[in-house]
Amino acid sequence: MKYSFEIAGLTDTGKNRPNNEDSIGFDTLDDGRVFAMVADGMGGHRAGEIASNITVTELQQSLCNSQWDESRLISTIQQINLSIYKQAQENNKYQGMGTTIVLACIENDSLMIAHVGDSRCYQWIEQETDNESHGILKTLTTDHSLIEEMLSQGLLEKEDLAKSMRKNLLTRALGVRPGIEVTLGEYTLENTGIILLCSDGLSDMLDEQQLENILSAPMSLGFKCQNLIDEANKAGGRDNISVILISYSK
Description:
Elements: E1 4-12, E2 22-28, E3 34-42, H1 47-64, H2 70-90, E4 98-99, E5 101-107, E6 110-116, E7 120-129, E8 132-139, H3 146-152, E9 183-188, E10 193-198, H4 200-203, H5 208-215, H6 221-234, E11 241-249
Antiparallel strand pairs: 1-11, 2-3, 3-4, 3-5, 5-6, 6-9, 7-8, 7-10, 10-11
């Protein structure tokens, strides 16, 4: 199935952080393939900014110069992980640096999502009933975090999430160890919709209903990106905020 795509993305420092350690990247290739990524860096002395920038820069270069398949995407991310890890070991200022990554690759109606950490991918699918347009929001990724493990094991209830002090403790991140497990999911696009990639600076500030309200609003993709960031800042803006939206239609 042939689809047309539009992409918009923004990143913002937020209200509490001195600098922005998030990095974003997206492009539409000459053959019609589309990719987008969000990386949320961590580490002192601006090392998180370095880790996220390395990830986005090297991933973009690889995606522009090769065919896409599951094994290639995973091996590329694993190579980037090792590169960040080695740089952290060789430079004392960069010790402990790391980054999340969430990557969306679209070819025709095929969507591949690769991720490590707690940066997320959502899919909003437009539906029409009785001549009115609304949509369904799905979360396509599961955070690699201690909180998510506790939820899956029944050690914590969703109602207790807001009180938890472990909310941002990751179980996976690029650059922390020489090896990394990458989670990859494959999906088929249907109808008309929007793919949302974001750092936890957005997902921690806005709930799914708030996200759905903005994604379904009759405004341009760029305005939706800005609206998401503005609402996250209004809610506290505790972290850097990064958003990429990919709209698709037949």
